[in-house]
From TrEMBL:
Identification of the protein by name: Cyclin dependent kinase
SUPFAM superfamilies, alphabetized: Protein kinase-like (PK-like)
GO MF annotation terms: ATP binding; cyclin-dependent protein serine/threonine kinase activity; RNA polymerase II CTD heptapeptide repeat kinase activity
Alphabetical UniProt keywords: ATP-binding, Kinase, Nucleotide-binding, Serine/threonine-protein kinase, Transferase
Catalytic activity: [DNA-directed RNA polymerase] + ATP = phospho-[DNA-directed RNA polymerase] + ADP + H(+); L-seryl-[protein] + ATP = O-phospho-L-seryl-[protein] + ADP + H(+); L-threonyl-[protein] + ATP = O-phospho-L-threonyl-[protein] + ADP + H(+)
Pfam assignment, any one: Pkinase
Family (UniProt): Belongs to the protein kinase superfamily. CMGC Ser/Thr protein kinase family. CDC2/CDKX subfamily.
Domain Protein kinase: 9-281
Top-level lineage group: Eukaryota
One GO CC annotation: mediator complex
Amino acid sequence: MKRKHQPDCECASVMSEEQYALVFKTYRVGEFDEIYVPKKEAVHLTSLRELKYLRDFKHNNIITISDTFNNGGCTHLVMEYMDYNLESMIKNKDLSLSHIKFFMHQILLALDYLQSKRVLHRDIKPRNILVNKGGVLKLSGFWLARKRESTNHQFSPAATTLWYRAPELLYGARHYNTTVDIWSFGCIVGEFCTKNPLFPGNSEIDQLEKIFTIRGSPNNQTWPNCRLYPGYLEPTYNAGVSLHLVLPNTPIDLISIADAALQINPDSRPSAFQLMSFEFLRNVPVASEYSDPPIFQKDDTAYPSNSDY
């Protein structure tokens, strides 16, 4: 139920600053929450759009709204409290292959659900993936989400944080689909393996160069229609390198998932459902069966990163 006034809660701390909102950790009797407060300079529609989607979504791996209220002419979203974001976990925790498998599977479950709804998240990145101390992972940050109503539906290419942006978006594509989220997932897989972003570009052109340095520049065989994009620029030829060299000491069956998700041709990327059938992700335990040594200590405190990409 939407409230007209702020719920009875105390602000414990500012957790992070996002592009469209400040995130506060709050406390009310018996539980913690997160309140997303839209920035005044941001378009108010982003908050309303996120509210619309999150009210409709019912999935264990997507963040839920517990309350909303109006304050200062803006809609504030009260969401369940999560202890960590994946960015801070990758940087500060020693994740085993079992942890990586467990988290990857949950991300794909969320993406598969969105794909079944024809919804593009358009900003998949570690900071928008939240984890509690029980290891349950939830996708958040739906400010840029859009529903693809038809194959002719056009979207802005200015979506997704640069380091996780698919090549077709960097070429100015306006007709695209949920495979842009699969590309972002592939970038996160690489980050799981190296603890560093896979393609840390500082501009759209530099981002493309970093992608092609590893994945190879497009040609008529690997990406036949790439020249049709409005922002296409003929790249310098680059054969690319094997992901085995980019992700050293990584199991082959894990590399195969990254390789599939990071196809430069969007038509060659598998769906989230298809990725879950890969060898690395078979026999993934459910949370109640999860027996890997814990990565959380009782006195752990979550410190979400405020750095910008």
